[in-house]
Write a structure and sequence with these properties.
3-stranded antiparallel beta sheet; 2 helices; alpha+beta; about 30% helix
Length: about 50
């Protein structure tokens, strides 16, 4: 992805409560998919149960 049409990477910050990701540089907002949400927050519970 390009940030501001320059070959810079976006700096994403993820929001759990509204399921969005936001770029700190250009302030663009994109809704994250259920897959991305599961990767970010869904797997942590399973790793603790040993």
């Amino acid at each position: 992805m390009n940030c501001h049409k320059i070959s810079e990477a976006h700096v994403w910050r993820y929001s759990k409560h509204n399921k969005m990701r936001r770029c700190l540089k250009c302030k663009s907002r994109i809704a994250i998919t259920a897959e991305e949400f599961a990767q970010k927050w869904g797997m942590h519970k399973k790793s603790k149960s040993v």
